[in-house]
Amino acid sequence: MEGILKNKIMNNRVIADGRQLPFSITETLSENGGLIIGVVHLEKIGLLIFLFCFLVGCNQTVTVSISEKPDAEEALRLDTKADIFQWDGSIYQTIIDWVDELELTVNEQIGEIQFNATKAEDFKDGAANLLPIGAQIFTTNEGNGILIVKYKNEVKYYLALTEG
Prior knowledge:
The chain is α+β, with helices and mostly antiparallel strands. The protein has helices at about 1-10, 40-55, 70-80, 95-100; strands spanning about 10, 15, 20-30, 35-40, 85, 90-95, 105-110, 115, 125-130, 135-140, 145-150, 155-160. The protein has two domains: about 1-55, no CATH class; about 70-160, no CATH class. About 20% of the residues lie in helices and about 35% in strands. The strands form three sheets. The protein has a six-stranded antiparallel sheet with strand order 5-6-12-11-10-7, covered by helices on one side.
């Protein structure tokens, strides 16, 4: 068999009918001195290299973050002295410099503070941590995520905290 293969092997390439076939021959000696001939298909090697690179490249960790509106717990965790209230499922916060500098006009009253909440888990629509019960909540003519709260002789602007 060795003589037949050598007649068809030129520089470790298999030649049949004058054409080079798409695989190579590797020869090694076994421990007992016998010749071991291995046929390695080049298409399979290419495919294996491609799959290896693809799998290694796809082994990256992808983290997907889903952002939600902050709740009272998050607002108070970021600022333990935050003046907040909840309305229509959103948390509103005051003492935000750029909001306080705006010139806003009152549109219509949409409600009032109904509960005082001392813990974040006690918040629900109409609850506030520092505003008094009965403080009136108004929309603005500018309609930009800011509500105006009036109580006694005080007026405050509250910005809706958004996803971040």
